[in-house]
Structures
1.
Amino acid sequence: MFEPVISATGLFTPKESISNDELVESFNRYVDQFNHDNAGAIEAGSTEPLQHSSVEFIEKASGIKSRFVLSKAPILDPEIMCPRLPERLNSEISVLAEIGVAAARDALARAGRKPEDVDAVLCACSNLQRAYPAIAVEIQDALGIQGFGFDMNVACSSATFGIQTAADFIRAGHARSVLVINPEICSGHLNWRDRDSHFIFGDVATAILVEDKSLAPAGHWEILGTRLKTQFSNNIRNNFGFLNRTAPETRDDRDKLFMQEGRKVFKEVVPMVAELILSQLGELNISPALLRRMWLHQANAGMNRLIAARVLGHEASADESPTVLDTYGNTSSAGSIIAFHLNSEDLNTGELGLICSFGAGYSAGTVMVRKSG
């Protein structure tokens, strides 16, 4: 009987970071220029003036204080306000695969593994930079891994869905060692000119090595159970895709970037996720009081506080529910994995934890783990 465990995780963090002060200064310069250029239309009432952003607004709305990005200067340029990542030759490794490989190498090194020990690669993330060939197969090739690989997309829940998929492969005997890679260049699908969302996302890549227990190093994490849930909603949406090239021209293409109805998302996702967690705990006969730590999706500090409180029955401490949101921002599928990667080594043998993601779809996933000696 094969038993899947998490042997190690890996992390790639870009060198550049944007603080809220820098972001607000840039955004407000754009607002001032827009209002100046459209003064006549604004005075006539045919165009609404744009409003300034502020550090206070951002931190109150999200808890985010900074975010790492791959292309800082163009994002902060009011004339550009998006990353500029030059298109690479087909003979060169893609940027998404490159950061995925970096995270994968970190995970392999932590587990004492070589690429030839791995049977499969899953690239699970929110936004793939191309349709095909699969980024996972490119990562597989760059690392020198035999076997197979494929891409999957479940938005911010991609990592937990990927972990369950990898665990199922191992249980079925189709693989004994699987890399789940989460490269997230979220700066590319963010509308940096939208006051309500210009502060949300950052760039990063994470990796999770899921293996059969017989192969795992000491200090691995037993996967006690996983649960997945999806429920259709238009409240988080991005309509960018290859069919946009054949669609009629429209004057408003804002829906080709990240869009959300934030209040609706907050109201609907919090109870859905809390219920999913409690349901899995009940299925595993685990009392919430036995949870040593929760590594929640890093989307919004307020959402995490409410979810943790509903599960634990009290306001969670920073130790019970650590955050990386303040320094990394929302990194989509990678967020809960970063929290786990940076805040798990102090747990003792036998202690229980929960990795949880949630996001567009709606989608949500939970992975219950126990620290092994």
Note: The CA atoms of residues 32 and 87 lie 32 Å apart.
2.
Amino acid sequence: MLRITATITISEDELVERFIRAPGPGGQNVNKVETAVQLRFDAAHSPNLPHAVFLRLKPLAGRRMTRDGVVVITANRFRSQERNREEARERLADLIRKAAVTPKRRRPTRPGKAAKQRRLDAKKRRAGLKRTRGKRGVSDD
């Protein structure tokens, strides 16, 4: 059981882990042992994930989410399989936690009377400045 928030938990059978060979340096170990983990979570069909959270998760996940709504996280930072597995699960949990936060609704507001007056005064000052520049006459040469 992967606990995301107080209300959202993901069961183990919804997570699919596949171990792959990690790229990069590591000597002979990297060629023999599959230490990197690829964690897959079908967010679109998960009964434990609310639809609103899924909709916010889509843009947050970006390229990590397939067209079918499956979140794929690859972890290969560590040289041990277990630590990569923990990191992948933690990254998935963090991603879903961010999506679980409902954004604050924006209340449309209008500028106040003083703000309108300041704007008009600034426009008048600027217009006056430009008016005083004027064009050079023929006799000004």
Note: DSSP finds four helices and five strands in the chain.
3.
Amino acid sequence: MRLDKLLSNLGFSSRSQCRDMIKKGRVQVNGNVCRDMAVHVPDGARVTLDGKEIDTRTERCLMLYKPGGILTAAEDQRQKTVMDILPQQYRSLGCMPVGRLDKDTTGLLLLTTDGDLAHRLISPKYHVDKVYLAALDGEMTEEDERAFAEGIELKDFTALPARLEKADERLYRVTVQEGKYHQVKRMFGARGRKVLALHRCSFGSLILDEQMQPGEYRELTEKETAALYAAAGKAK
């Protein structure tokens, strides 16, 4: 990637301002002052600005604790989205949500710059579990559990087999491997129950960090990222 574009995408300033910093000799690549804004910066190159090393990774994976009341969308003219929570740096790098959580659903939301990884993680083909806790308006039965395990027939499609487990009074854990629009709520609705609150606890091997509060985010560790790539059958 061009040096000026890289610095701009990393959120240091506008493209024109980054060019000015480069012209003034404030940027070094692999220990050498670089005034060529169009120079290609190879992966793994050491880049510094005013003597401070820059994290030049363009591929990022984030965990965000989605609060209720905001949309899972790239942008919206009227309502706040999950992208509004992130610094410009991640938006400039092309970090996008992996699938969707409904506006009122809380919990673990993944974001990544790797579109192919995102596609694989939400595709039923790769059998990546998504686990939710659902607070209901009543109790489920053993017959309901069997129905979930067999696959709930909805108006426009039949949901794949899912696992339903009781967690507490009127609180149930459900594990699915797909994520169509309002799917979990519709599955419970097909069995005569209303979902009062829905929270995603985990996505594949990744569990929502218990130290995080709603609206907080962090980058995944190398181990967490490697496990996601492995679950998606993709080389890292």
Note: The longest strand covers residues 195-203.
4.
Amino acid sequence: MTQLRVLITGGGRGIGRAIALRFAREGAKVAVAARTSAEVDAVVREIDAAGGHGSAQQMDVTEHGSVEAAVYRAVEFAGGALDVVVNNAGIFEIRPFDKMDIALWLRHVHVNLDGPFFVALEALDALYESPKPHIFNIASIAARQGFPGNTAYCATKAGLRGFSDALRIDLAAKKVRVSTVYPGATDTTIFDNVPGPWDRSKMNKPEDVAEVVWKAYNTPAGTNVDDLDVPPRA
């Protein structure tokens, strides 16, 4: 099998890390991007140990210049093409609407919407060089339904779904697949500081999401992988 070339944002932990390691086990070249260098450096070591070839890219998805530079370096590392781009970086903070402030709203917009737009835009030419290009946008069940204290999160994840739907149409002629992934609550560090009676033992694990992404990438052409649900844990 040809060595896959992958770029993952928010790749330093949680779902992004799990996806990186899933592709690494298949021998892929995986560029992991995040704001925290120490985290992506650690994941690169895990990628290499798992049988892949990793590259750490410091990236702030809210800043176009940062995205442009990191994607350029990732494409160089990958040899000029990308087969898979995973827009996983995201922010989630519960705040009742009557306590919402403009700064938190805009932070959600910048990370959850601007980031995927910047990354897809900068990665497009490299995706066109792949025989089987695929963009995965990691949304949430909050893209489909409302939850208390989640006006900013639900709005931006629903916006990401709309972005995916329209992007899929625009890129169809170039045979770029675009999938939206809808995890439920997933046991990652994002819940460390979230108030509420969360039973994390019943949540999905990051590896569950990674397996959905891996299987979708490997489905034959013509298979509908537009919207991907993550099966609940038994």
Note: The chain has one domain: 5-229.
